UniProtKB/TrEMBL annotation:
Domain Fe/B12 periplasmic-binding residue range list: 71-361
Domain of life: Bacteria
Signal peptide: 1-19
Upper taxonomic lineage: Bacteria, Bacillati, Actinomycetota, Actinomycetes, Kitasatosporales
One Pfam family hit: Peripla_BP_2
Protein name per Swiss-Prot or TrEMBL: ABC transporter substrate-binding protein
Length: 365
């Protein structure tokens, strides 16, 4: 049996490849704007947590919460992590795609390991509907996984089971968004929305403000660099396979992370979240920098081994060893999840990449 670390990190690819069925809904309509501002309840009608709160799905359909949910099920580790960071972990009663042991920092890891695992991958339809949840937070949007796992429940089935269904829109709606993702506003909206729904607005604001502070500092340091002088950058998703690389396109949150860090994603002209490309395409771009996108193995030693393997592959493969970034050892060892999965650590990755690419401007590499 493969470890939970590997099962959990499969979600990093599934979240991009399988997201479907979303349009360009504008955040949520309880007062939150693109700046990640807080929602507001109608005067005199809200409880102490700021309820009622109304959120929208990718197509703009509205869901109203008259009070905070008490039994939340999450589709994968990304929405679970956000709830833990918000201090709402005690409300989570189950998850799919659980985080592997050691993949979350400190106390978050200990809390995550206490959450009931409803599935190591996508939660089967009948198990989800019978989970007793009053809220299901969906990272992927509607999908049909096949393989005996069953279809995703319909909205009518969610309603009949007494489950409200909301999305991490920064991920679920990314593939069909109308424009490239070049900032973290959608991620910040998700955090703000979850904070309003779960009654943790103050913590949500604290998290969003911290993200903005880091990104704004990088923008101030490198924002004046002309587009043509910014280094080119390729995210090498080593765990997605080496035979045919999986490129991050302009609707993926990684495109925003790379752009905010002052680099140019070599596949930024690709509309969508991910796309299979050929090594000849990467060679044609000949990137200045390559990020070794390795998923968290749950330990420092395990991560180092995986990064070493990814680097060795690039350096020994005839098709890639002549790339500028490989020859000049411009290879960044930064984990996949914090780059490609929407969350608080996206801002940390912006800062980390920028420190390496602009050591004189941003700080020590």
């Amino acid at each position: 049996m493969r470890s939970r670390v590997w099962r959990a990190t499969t979600a990093a690819v599934l979240g991009g490849l399988l997201a479907a069925g979303c349009g360009g809904g504008d955040g949520w309509d309880s007062g939150a704007g693109r700046d990640g501002g807080e929602a507001s309840a109608p005067a005199g009608k809200g409880d102490s947590g700021g309820h009622p709160v109304t959120v929208t799905d990718c197509m703009g359909a509205r869901t109203t919460f008259t009070d905070a949910p008490k039994r939340i099920v999450t589709s994968n580790a990304s929405s679970l992590e956000l709830l833990l960071r918000l201090g709402a972990g005690d409300k989570v009663t189950g998850t799919g795609f659980p985080p592997g042991k050691g993949t979350l920092p400190g106390e978050l890891d200990a809390q995550a390991q206490q959450v009931k695992v409803l599935s190591e991958t996508v939660i089967p339809k009948e198990k989800l509907l019978g989970s007793g949840a009053d809220l299901y937070i969906d990272t992927f949007a509607s999908m049909n996984m096949g393989g005996g796992m069953g279809d995703a429940p319909t909205e009518e089935e969610f309603k009949a089971a007494g489950i409200k269904h909301t999305f991490l829109k920064s991920t679920a709606c990314a593939a069909t968004s109308k424009s490239p993702v070049t900032d973290l506003s959608a991620v910040e909206e998700d955090i703000t929305s979850l904070g309003a729904v779960t009654g943790t607005r103050a913590k949500a604001k604290e998290l969003v403000d911290g993200m903005k502070e880091k990104v704004d500092a990088v923008r101030k340091a490198v924002g004046g660099t002309p587009e043509g002088e910014r280094p080119t950058y390729f995210f090498f998703d080593y765990d997605a396979g080496t035979k045919q690389p999986l490129a991050v396109c302009n609707r993926q949150v990684a495109n925003a992370v790379i752009t905010l860090a002052g680099a140019r994603n070599v596949f930024a002209d690709c509309d969508g979240d991910h796309k299979q490309v050929g090594w000849e395409d990467v060679i044609a771009e000949n990137p200045d920098w390559i990020q070794l996108g390795v998923r968290n193995r749950g330990s420092e030693a395990g991560n180092k081994k995986a990064f070493d393997e990814a680097q060795e592959w690039l350096e020994s493969n005839p098709a890639t060893k002549g790339l500028r970034a490989v020859k000049e050892a411009r290879l960044l060892r930064i984990g996949s999840e914090q780059t490609t999965i929407a969350g608080v650590t996206n801002a940390d990755t912006v800062e980390e990449i920028a420190k390496t690419l602009y050591p004189g401007k941003v700080g020590r590499p």
